[in-house]
Amino acid sequence: MEVLAATSHSLSCRFTFRPAISQVQPWKSLRVRILESRLQGFSLYVRTNAVNRHRSCSNSDGAFKHKLLLRHLVVAALLVTSASVAVSKSPSWALSEENLLFLEAWRTIDRAYVDKSFNGQSWFRYRENALRNEPMNSREETYTAIRKMLATLDDPFTRFLEPEKFKSLRSGTQGALTGVGLSIGYPTGSDGSVAGLIVISASPGGPAYRAGISSGDIILAIDDTTTKSMGIYDAAERLQGPEGSSVELTIRSGPETKHLALTREKVSLNPVQSRLCEVPGSGKNLPKIGYIKLTTFNQNSSGAVRKAIDTLKSNSVNAFVLDLRDNSGGLFPEGIEIAKIWLDKGVIVYICDSLGVRDIYDTDGSSAIAASEPLAVLVNKGTASASEILAGALKDNKRAVLFGEPTYGKGKIQSVFQLSDGSGLAVTVARYETPAHTNIDKVGVIPDHPLPVSFPKDEDSFCRCLQDSASACHINGVQLFPR
């Protein structure tokens, strides 16, 4: 299973989603597996409730805990009953190989999906109806049936991936990307004023970045096909392609509409850039500041951050700036590991599943290498998913002061499951809360202070803004590190 803390899909083939992907075993015995999955789900609940660390998110203990356990004892009895009924109604005909693949996908959703009402429908009844009525005479027809099943959940982040797309997703978490270098998402506003897909970030140095596309821009069309009702994964497929091929985008940036032709290329995702900024004349007020820009959470990110900190500390840095602007997320475990670098103790994030059961990621300080130096964190509306987990952890533990604008607001976590034919499912499995029990979904992490409008995003300009008191973007050490 690969856990993904993602809000966006990176259209350079970069997926902002997680750790080792598990093989879902083929469906063997339909009758046994139905009952088995339900009974296992109940057993898991009883075990987690027996552990003091697992409680319901955003709820008090005491009476609630007693009622919750009683309620789920009743629900468990109903589940066993419903499973027995479902067994009695199992299809009597022989299941084909295509039927088995469909059931494998159905079972994965049944066991992992965060909403156990399945968007207000009977998941067992859907399975029975699909097996009776959906054509599954070829692999493509089976894939269509799986996509149709997932569409009933009305969750844009739970989706099916053909074998090649699944392979691309895995490579995206390893830093090997080909495309235009964009991370996109769905607009979070509720006024319906935006028709299209929103740019979360453009990879520094990539084709989109060089063309001037930036956070908050709206993609109106891809190769003359409107994005008004286009999903982000459909958009990803259209934006990806052979290296050297071209794609045309219609972009709205503020009041301006632009038509751009971009050439796809391999985008190298070095997750970290760093710089030592010496601030002359500041006396004892932090004359050396270590600037670290983290652009993505791939399998190299935590190691790269550690290396940057070690290098900067060897040059007597006594304060740090961690820049998470336009970082659209990535691997959830990397976000956790990077939080541990900065924290000597404390909760990093709470994970809430469909039952309200809470899992806790915390740290005892054993992995910390920079837990005491003053720390400022820069965020913007392109800061999403795993970046928001990290920013929320550092803010709520009072480890850092946040500067910038509210983050994107993606408070849900996806896991990736491989099916037996090499295809896969990305499934929304949980939501998370910050250490202060803040649900940031569609709201974002709120910074402590704004940044000057003209504040730059590259390390060289950042240093100049600290050094030049006459600059419009100037901010001094006292402002950056008020604690």
Automatic annotation (TrEMBL):
<dbReference type="GO" id="GO:0009543">
    <property type="term" value="C:chloroplast thylakoid lumen"/>
</dbReference>
<protein>
    <recommendedName>
        <fullName>C-terminal processing peptidase</fullName>
        <ecNumber>3.4.21.102</ecNumber>
    </recommendedName>
</protein>
<dbReference type="InterPro" id="IPR005151">
    <property type="entry name" value="Tail-specific_protease"/>
</dbReference>
<dbReference type="GO" id="GO:0006508">
    <property type="term" value="P:proteolysis"/>
</dbReference>
<dbReference type="Pfam" id="PF17820">
    <property type="entry name" value="PDZ_6"/>
</dbReference>
<dbReference type="InterPro" id="IPR004447">
    <property type="entry name" value="Peptidase_S41A"/>
</dbReference>
<dbReference type="Pfam" id="PF03572">
    <property type="entry name" value="Peptidase_S41"/>
</dbReference>
<dbReference type="InterPro" id="IPR036034">
    <property type="entry name" value="PDZ_sf"/>
</dbReference>
<dbReference type="InterPro" id="IPR001478">
    <property type="entry name" value="PDZ"/>
</dbReference>
<keyword id="KW-0793">Thylakoid</keyword>
<dbReference type="InterPro" id="IPR029045">
    <property type="entry name" value="ClpP/crotonase-like_dom_sf"/>
</dbReference>
<comment type="function">
    <text>Protease involved in the C-terminal processing of the chloroplastic D1 protein of photosystem II. This proteolytic processing is necessary to allow the light-driven assembly of the tetranuclear manganese cluster, which is responsible for photosynthetic water oxidation.</text>
</comment>
<dbReference type="GO" id="GO:0004252">
    <property type="term" value="F:serine-type endopeptidase activity"/>
</dbReference>
<comment type="similarity">
    <text>Belongs to the peptidase S41A family.</text>
</comment>
<keyword id="KW-0378">Hydrolase</keyword>
<keyword id="KW-0645">Protease</keyword>
<keyword id="KW-0720">Serine protease</keyword>
<feature type="domain" description="PDZ">
    <location>
        <begin position="166"/>
        <end position="240"/>
    </location>
</feature>
<dbReference type="InterPro" id="IPR041489">
    <property type="entry name" value="PDZ_6"/>
</dbReference>
